[in-house]
């Protein structure tokens, strides 16, 4: 996916401005990316439409690279759509005993997720939890939950053979109330496909159980079918949220976007493995990045930057090799940094650089400083730029006044330039920009 997507962004990056045609092209690819991530067609279509409106409004106005801009718009919109209101993992479990009903197809991970959530509530929230399996379909299903309960140190309802799901639910409610439990999990049976019998049973259980939360458990690798599952369960049973399992696999998680868009219900948790600790609160950023293949794009933006650096470096290296590094050279570097979105933009693009960007900012090295320095250089004559050694007191005063700044600021710039010029002389070819960037910090 992202190679193609990346190609488009790379092209956009080179052009320097977003035209309507560019946005169209990019978004066509975004749509393909979404479909490849198993987002359903109507959802992908709507999503792209929303993004286009946003992108068009901003298109030519901003000075950051167009590719970055499109990535950001697409990513932000994904996060916006995916995010629920409030923290994803805040289950409504006040007024004990609160019942949590777990529904979904067979094999989606209901039983495993039930135990994972029980463990989490016990350990994180200090809740007293009771587990009950209503799975009268599969032979060893009830034992499976009881075993997991023992493993995590959580009580489960004693198994009585021959009861119906509704009967078990009733008994579980009583037990939860009498036993002073905070939370009761009802783990229901699933079918391989949605059918009347399954839905009727779940409805009957729901009416008895009066759950505070009804969580639909969906296999994150399910793909397009997830929409139908979510739509059906939401219409027939009414769900309060979704748990996406098997997100440790290489599914792209597009089901999350589809289900969120179609049901309007938030994704609450993601399952990340078979172990009892392998569950996390749903994070829209993480899944958005995954759906979009953001990592690849970030890498491509880096690559584009490196290409630019290489060209720039080669041209400048010739000058530097001769010991030439004047104010014009410095200015073109500062201009480039601004164009790339300033310090924050340049560093924000690189993984692990956020901290450095912040440190640079604290040291007073921000975009405003870049602009002030550029203003100072602009205020110099051609001669002065080519030969900074000319700058004595009176010229300095004139230049600083011209830029509306203090002489001390000009002195700082000159000192910085001197350091850089010295370093340039020492350096041979290659890695030029990186060294420059480092020197500036
Ligand atoms: P149920 O039929 O819906 O109750 O599904 P189960 O809870 O019995 O899970 C079916 C299988 O999927 C089991 O082997 C689980 O260990 C596995 N499973 C559940 N959740 C996850 C997950 O998040 N990641 C992985 N890799 N496996 C999972
Ligand atoms: Mg089960």
Automatic annotation (TrEMBL):
It catalyses: GTP + H2O = GDP + phosphate + H(+). It is a peripheral membrane protein. The keyword Metal-binding does not apply. Gene3D superfamilies: P-loop containing nucleotide triphosphate hydrolases, Signal recognition particle SRP54, nucleotide-binding domain, Signal recognition particle, SRP54 subunit, M-domain. One of its GO terms (biological process) is SRP-dependent cotranslational protein targeting to membrane. Residues 266-279 form the SRP54-type proteins GTP-binding domain. InterPro entries: AAA+_ATPase, P-loop_NTPase, Signal_recog_part_SRP54_M_sf, Signal_recog_particl_SRP54_hlx, Signal_recog_particle_SRP54_M, SRP, SRP54, SRP54_GTPase_dom. GTP binds at residues 104-111, 187-191, 245-248. The keyword GTP-binding applies. One of its GO terms (cellular component) is signal recognition particle. Keywords: Cytoplasm, GTP-binding, Hydrolase, Nucleotide-binding, Ribonucleoprotein, RNA-binding, Signal recognition particle. GO terms for molecular function: 7S RNA binding; GTP binding; GTPase activity. It is found in: Cell inner membrane; Cytoplasm. Its EC number is 3.6.5.4. Involved in targeting and insertion of nascent membrane proteins into the cytoplasmic membrane. Binds to the hydrophobic signal sequence of the ribosome-nascent chain (RNC) as it emerges from the ribosomes. The SRP-RNC complex is then targeted to the cytoplasmic membrane where it interacts with the SRP receptor FtsY. Interaction with FtsY leads to the transfer of the RNC complex to the Sec translocase for insertion into the membrane, the hydrolysis of GTP by both Ffh and FtsY, and the dissociation of the SRP-FtsY complex into the individual components. Belongs to the GTP-binding SRP family. SRP54 subfamily. Composed of three domains: the N-terminal N domain, which is responsible for interactions with the ribosome, the central G domain, which binds GTP, and the C-terminal M domain, which binds the RNA and the signal sequence of the RNC. Part of the signal recognition particle protein translocation system, which is composed of SRP and FtsY. SRP is a ribonucleoprotein composed of Ffh and a 4.5S RNA molecule. PANTHER family: SIGNAL RECOGNITION PARTICLE 54K PROTEIN SRP54 (PTHR11564), SIGNAL RECOGNITION PARTICLE SUBUNIT SRP54 (PTHR11564:SF5). HAMAP family: SRP54. This is Signal recognition particle protein. It comes from Gemmobacter aquaticus.
């Amino acid at each position: 996916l992202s190679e193609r997507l990346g190609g488009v962004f790379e092209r956009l990056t080179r052009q320097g401005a977003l035209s309507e045609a560019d946005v169209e092209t990019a978004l066509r690819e975004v749509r393909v990316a979404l479909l490849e991530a198993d987002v359903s067609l109507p959802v992908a279509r709507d999503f792209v439409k929303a993004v286009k409106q946003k992108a068009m409004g901003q298109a030519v106005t901003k000075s950051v690279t167009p590719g970055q801009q499109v990535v950001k718009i697409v990513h932000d919109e994904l996060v916006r759509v995916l995010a629920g209101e409030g923290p994803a993992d805040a289950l409504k479990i006040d007024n004990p005993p609160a019942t949590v009903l777990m529904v979904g197809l067979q094999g989606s991970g209901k039983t495993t997720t039930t135990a994972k959530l029980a463990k989490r509530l016990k350990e994180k929230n200090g809740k007293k939890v009771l587990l009950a399996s209503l799975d009268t379909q599969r032979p060893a299903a009830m034992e499976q939950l009881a075993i997991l309960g023992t493993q995590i140190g959580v009580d489960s309802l004693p198994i009585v053979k021959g009861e119906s799901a509704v009967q078990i639910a009733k008994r579980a409610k009583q037990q939860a109330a009498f036993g002073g439990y905070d939370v009761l999990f009802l783990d229901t049976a699933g079918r391989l496909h949605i059918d009347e019998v399954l839905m009727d049973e779940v409805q009957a259980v729901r009416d008895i159980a009066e759950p505070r939360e009804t969580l639909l458990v969906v296999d994150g690798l399910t793909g397009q079918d997830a929409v139908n599952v979510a739509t059906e369960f939401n219409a027939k049973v009414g769900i309060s949220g979704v748990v996406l399992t098997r997100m440790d696999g290489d599914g792209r998680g597009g089901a999350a976007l589809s289900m969120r868009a179609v049901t309007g219900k938030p994704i609450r948790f993601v399952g990340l493995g078979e172990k009892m600790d392998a569950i996390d609160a749903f994070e829209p950023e993480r899944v958005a990045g995954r759906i979009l293949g953001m990592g690849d794009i970030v890498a491509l933006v880096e690559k584009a930057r490196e290409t630019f650096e290489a060209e720039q470096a080669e041209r400048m290296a010739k000058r530097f090799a001769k010991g030439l590094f004047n104010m014009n050279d410095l200015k073109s570097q500062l201009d480039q940094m601004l164009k790339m979105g300033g310090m924050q933009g340049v560093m924000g693009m690189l993984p692990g650089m956020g901290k450095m960007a912040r440190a640079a900012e604290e040291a007073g090295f921000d975009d405003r400083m870049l602009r002030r320095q550029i203003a100072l250089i602009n205020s110099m004559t051609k001669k002065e730029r080519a030969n900074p050694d000319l700058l004595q007191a009176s010229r300095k005063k004139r230049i600083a006044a011209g830029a509306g700044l203090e002489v001390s600021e000009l002195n700082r710039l000159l000192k910085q330039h001197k350091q850089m010029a010295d370093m340039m002389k020492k350096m041979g070819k290659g890695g030029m920009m990186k060294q420059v960037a480092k020197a500036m910090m």
